[in-house]
Specification:
- 2 copies of one chain form a homodimer.
- By secondary structure, chain A is mostly helical.
- Chain A is 72% helix and 0% strand.
- Chain A starts with 7 loop residues before the first helix and ends in an 8-residue tail after the last helix.
- Chain A binds a DNA duplex (30 and 30 nucleotides) through helix 3.
DNA sequence: CGCGGCGTGAACCGATCGGTCCAGTATTGG
DNA sequence: CCAATACTGGACCGATCGGTTCACGCCGCG
């Protein structure tokens, strides 16, 4: 069998960066060719479904990364505060401290991609659910409150990314990361500061 | 002078909806033609700069709407709580209770549009600044805290929009609206609930 | 060593992209 | 009522869009 110039993982990484920066419509095949160093036929050979399959594959990969890496500490044994901090650090790194955008945002504008849309929704729900279960199981928050807090926590992260991207100031996103303990671990909402 | 089929305002409203729903790259000229009922030449006559000028005009219009309508209550005399509530209601209506996206998000992915990018940044800064001045002048928050709170408030709104759009659940956005008083009016962060 | 097959490059496809041109229409001011 | 003006329709442009085809080269396996 012929040897591939770049591994599946390398290509998917490049694709991920592309879709993050430019969204679905903004990521043209020619841009993908330039960035990956592969030509159309090579791309098409790996992704028979074309661009949409590429986007779906990227979503799957990132969803897997969230499940097995970024959000994994939430389900491990140990001190809840430390586990949440670990997850926060990984999220911070994943989003380049606010420099990189989120696929859930940039990849969901194209309406005529139900496959991508469904994956995004599932990934978001998994994320929120992971936060909620952590707040409920490890921190004793009542179920409904835990769900609200989880939604708000992810919302704060996503919003921070938008603000940081548009304003060029990473502080809002970093504060969203730092606020995770207050959001998911405290029963009432008071802050010491 | 010839009579125009649709007023400047009608066309700009349609364009606003288009750019909100599909982003910059996703809003093709043919889509614009269908939605506005105008043909390319007519569009091009009104916007010599083409699609980029349309996007810029939309940004200008919405920025003006924020300044003279949505955020205006913050600078009026009267009870701060009521003024903030008024602004919240207008924001809620503007974003269709979470169904409609924000241009600051959907229009800032295309990097090779410095004009649009600059307008978005300015509009966002104006928004944050309006919140911050309200928190400082009307609610007595110290300047630096007011600025942080304002950033976080806008961040919560933007995040709520993303979550609501992807999940199809409007609750997160509505909670972001409801949380405005806590965010901008309270010196410490405790909540009664 | 040669065979089978995966992976790749280049050429090519129709459709659509954003943008341009100009002749015509309609309307208002003089 | 005529001319200047504001606007619109349709045809057209080159470039690029996403997608497809096919033959060749390269590799591992027998």
């Amino acid at each position: 069998m012929g040897l591939q110039k770049f591994s599946e993982n390398e290509v998917l990484s490049t694709l991920t960066g592309l879709f993050r920066d430019h969204g679905y419509d903004g990521t043209s095949l020619s841009l993908i060719m330039k960035a990956t160093g592969l030509v159309k036929a090579s791309l098409y050979h790996r992704f028979r479904g074309g661009k949409e399959e590429m986007a779906a594959a990227v979503m799957d990969r990132v969803a897997g990364e969230f499940a097995t890496d970024l959000l994994a500490p939430l389900n491990e044994p140990g001190d809840p505060a430390e586990r949440l901090w670990k997850t926060g650090e990984r999220l911070r790194k994943f989003y380049g401290s606010g420099k990189k955008a989120c696929l859930l945002d940039t990849l969901t504008l194209n309406r005529e991609s139900p496959a991508v849309q469904a994956r995004a929704k599932a990934a978001l729900e998994f994320w929120i659910d992971s936060f909620a279960r952590f707040a409920e199981d490890s921190c004793g928050l009542p179920r409904v409150l835990a769900m609200e807090r989880a939604q708000d926590a992810v919302s704060a992260l996503e919003g921070g990314l938008v603000i940081s991207r548009v304003s060029g100031n990473r502080a809002p996103f970093l504060r969203a990361i730092e606020s995770l303990p207050e959001r998911l671990m405290l029963v009432s909402g008071e802050v010491s500061k």
